[in-house]
Amino acid sequence: MDITNEMPELKNKESWEGFIKGDVLNFLIGHNLQAITVDDGSGKKGIIKRTAGGDYKVQITSNETL
Predict the structure, then answer these.
(1) Using an 8 Å Cβ cutoff, are 21 and 59 in contact?
(2) What secondary structure letter does DSSP report for 66?
(3) Higher-scoring residue by pLDDT: 11, 26
(4) Which residues pair with 37 in a beta bridge?
(5) pTM
């Protein structure tokens, strides 16, 4: 499923970062998960992992074709 087709506002980098740090992080916390990976199918990926100390590590990557 290409989430950016359903939510076109996620196409820009700032919106993608906000989505990962907002909705996705809240989902992970709300469901007591250790890690989650989200891939938009167009080269953007977000990974959130809970550390042993209880902190959350967020990694956001993107690939661009020029």
Answers:
(1) no
(2) -
(3) 26
(4) 47
(5) 0.75
